[in-house]
Design goal:
Blueprint: H1 15-26, H2 28-38, E1 50-54, E2 58-64, E3 71-77, H3 87-103, E4 109-124, E5 127-134, E6 145-150, H4 155-163, E7 172-182, E8 203-210, H5 216-223, E9 229-237, E10 248-252, H6 257-265, E11 274-279, H7 295-299, H8 302-305, E12 307-312, H9 319-329, H10 331-334, E13 340-346, H11 347-361, E14 368-374
Parallel strand pairs: 10-11, 10-13, 11-12, 13-14
Antiparallel strand pairs: 1-2, 2-3, 4-5, 4-9, 5-8, 6-7, 6-9, 7-8
Bound molecules: flavin-adenine dinucleotide.
Length: 377
């Protein structure tokens, strides 16, 4: 933190306005982390923290006082000044890493990792499973651990992308580790082809990609062959720590069902969750039937105890209204008090649902995590 007397030059790039509104809307948890880590102000679980202005040298945050009647401003300095528009994202991530380190929280890591594709097959009509060999330090038990994959890897993918290349063609895409496991001698692997001692110690993983037409991410996943080496550019640990106790509500579409499947497999919370599984094809809701429960979990069979509600999505469905009505009117759900929410959906749906559930459930920022996993174009 520094004082306002310091020299500050407002950033002149027009991209900054989009950046400010995006971060204020979608990344409240990170801004609260900045306020907590870098300022002298007390931050409550519900205190809204906003970026007021971005300067070459840092960001100015506004933080309301307790009764929300006045705002206080605090300046948080970047490690390096912004010289070109692209620096802004890197400097923001650097602040996030610094704040997380200070507060002992997990956050995004900028690192290149290499995976080798071993196999791929459909697990439901539109979910393609990539079986890969993963890097040695891959986390084995963090549901929602995602990687930003470079869609130009392997080299052959570059040609494919070039054929469709426009400035706006997506070249990177986040996908989640559906499950990762280390091969141990004498232990059965979920991937039947890898049960040989030559793989001992190696980490294998599943990455499940939702195929929805002719799109860069789906085309990339479909094109991958056994032996292809693919690269990720970032690691992103999803925020799921708040789900360890209380009545949880999980809301997922095809892009976040891999996280929910893994959450259910390693569920330790004594209270089973409510799950809304939203798919565009009823057959894809069977995705959650393929859970690989650990021995200890079989006893409290989460598949029977969790309330799993498939929702068949359609272009004219108002998802927010539908979920809200189900919560209020379904006799099994109306009797429950929801303490924690995790979900990840399309941007407009996530925004509308966040607003509605915040009002109806009265949860704090920490207890209600509703993420944007994709944007309708
Ligand atoms: C942290 C994180 C983890 C993720 N994990 C996974 C994962 O494990 N598996 C997975 O499949 N996805 C996952 N996603 C979502 C994935 O990154 C996006 O859906 C990505 O946009 C897909 O790229 P695309 O090339 O298929 O489509 P885009 O380039 O985003 O869009 C192309 C077209 O497809 C439409 N479109 C995009 N996504 C969808 C959709 N889901 N349903 C319907 N239409 C769509 C768009 O409106 C557009 O018209 C994750 C996202 C994040 C942020």
């Amino acid at each position: 933190m520094s004082h306002s007397s310091e020299h500050k030059t407002p950033l002149s790039y027009p991209e900054k306005y989009k950046f400010i509104s995006h971060v204020n809307e979608e990344h409240q948890d990170e801004l609260a982390m900045f306020a907590e880590a870098f300022t002298d102000l007390a931050i409550e679980a519900t205190t809204p923290v906003n970026i007021k202005e971005v300067f070459v040298e840092g960001v100015e945050l506004t933080i309301p006082n307790e009764d929300l009647s006045t705002d206080q401003c605090r300046f948080v300095k970047f490690d390096q000044p912004i010289l070109i528009a692209e620096d802004l994202k890197a400097q923001y991530i650097a602040l996030m890493q610094k704040a997380a380190k200070k507060l002992g929280k997990k956050t995004i890591k900028l690192q290149n990792q290499e995976f080798t594709v071993k196999d791929s097959y459909l697990v439901t009509p539109n979910m393609l499973r990539l079986v890969v060999t993963a890097p040695p330090a891959t986390p084995l038990s963090h549901p929602g651990y995602a990687y930003l994959f470079d869609l130009t890897s392997p080299a052959s993918a570059t040609e494919q992308l070039a054929a469709a290349d426009t400035e706006s063609t997506r070249k990177q895409c986040y996908y989640t580790l559906r499950r990762a496991w280390q091969h141990e001698e004498g232990q059965n692997s979920p991937d039947a082809q890898s049960n040989t001692s030559q793989h001992q110690g190696e980490i294998s993983a599943w990455i499940d990609v939702y195929l929805h037409g002719d799109t860069p991410g789906g085309n990339w996943a479909r094109s991958l062959q056994s032996g292809d080496k693919i690269t990720s550019l970032r690691d992103y640990p999803e925020k799921i720590e708040h789900l360890s106790n209380g009545q949880c509500l999980l809301i997922a579409d095809e892009t976040s069902l891999p996280t929910v499947a893994r959450l259910l497999e390693v569920w330790q919370n004594p209270i089973a969750p409510i799950v809304f599984a939203i798919t565009n094809d009823a057959e894809d809701s069977k995705y959650l039937e393929n859970l690989e429960l650990q021995e200890a979990m079989r006893q409290m069979d989460i598949r029977q105890r969790a309330i799993i509600i498939p929702i068949l999505n359609s272009p004219d469905m108002d998802l927010t209204a539908h979920i809200s009505e189900r919560l209020a009117e379904d006799p099994d759900l109306a009797a429950l008090t929801i303490d924690r929410v995790w979900g990840a959906l399309e941007a407009a749906d996530a925004k509308a649902l966040r607003k509605r559930l915040k009002a109806e459930l009265g949860l704090t920022r920490q207890d209600m995590v509703l993420k944007v996993y994709w944007r309708r174009q």
